[in-house]
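Hey L., structure's done. Input below.
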Amino acid sequence: AIATTKNEQSTVKVKDGQLHVQVAEGEHLIIYNMKGEAVFSASKPTTRVIDNLPKGIYIVKTGHKSQKIIK
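Output:
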C-alpha cells in the first residue's frame, strides 16, 4: 500500500511497510500513534526512512494540517 500526505514541501509516504519522511525547511513534523503518543518528531530539514514502527494507523501533523496514514 502506498499512501502520501503532503503539506507544502514536507511529505510522508508509506511504501513497502516503511514510512518515508521528508521535512522541509521551516516545517515541524510530528507523527502520533492512535494512543496520542508522539513516535517521531523533526523540526529541521531531513529525509528519513522509519522502519521501526509497527503496522497501524498514525496521525501526521505538519504545520496546521493533520493527515491519517496507514502503515
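The longest strand covers residues 10-15. The two ends are 8 Å apart (CA to CA).

-- N.
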